[in-house]
């Protein structure tokens, strides 16, 4: 049976961040049915420039867009910086505005940060603008993430573990054929 391809984007540029660990956790939990590729080069995308958006598109952007387009679904897990999205994630999403690659794409959103509320709202708004296929039960806000996951990527908070399992279950169900 062919595995469903998921392209996972971490909004953090920090290596081994809490957001990266959450995506690794999810990829392990769904590995039997899903093939997850975690995009770790968000910091390699050039600054968005509308003059390059259609002609002379940078290779890194072409690759990034192609990975989204070829994926059956996308999961974004991001921190919140200064009550907003990290600039690197906003930049990556800006490279997608002139395309339809997110239109109808099954998308899960997780904001895992100290607070995260405002960044999460902004992420939802941006993804709705990009016409991503969002469901309420595949959007998750995890406040106080540093106290809920350890260095090994193990979820140490029972409620967070339950919420992640619920997120995973609902995300997987989107791909079930009735």
Automatic annotation (TrEMBL):
Q: Which residues form the NADPH-dependent FMN reductase-like domain?
A: 4-141
User: Entry's InterPro entries?
Assistant: Flavoprotein-like_sf (IPR029039), FMN_Rdtase-like_dom (IPR005025), NAD(P)H-dep_reductase (IPR050712)
Protein's UniProt name: NAD(P)H-dependent oxidoreductase
Q: Which organism is it from?
A: Flavobacterium piscisymbiosum
